[in-house]
Amino acid sequence: MYVCICKGITDNQIREAVGDGCDSLRDLRRELGVGSQCGKCARHARHVLREARSANEVSSFSHSSGGEAVVFWPQTA
Ligand code: FES
Fold it and tell me: Domain span at residue 50?
């Protein structure tokens, strides 16, 4: 879906940019040009950015634990 009509930027491009390290609307503006003309897309772009960041955090957590549940058994003395 198009987020920024002026620059022809889609939500998938924003998600990709977040995966590549973009962490703010300023980063997206610099990398993709989002919000650099009329600015009407800024609010939606920020929403997609937040969504993508939290998805990346969940994904990196599951990678760090190998995606498996960690169970702690009670210690017996
Ligand atoms: S819609 Fe993004 S700058 Fe105009």
Answer: 2-64
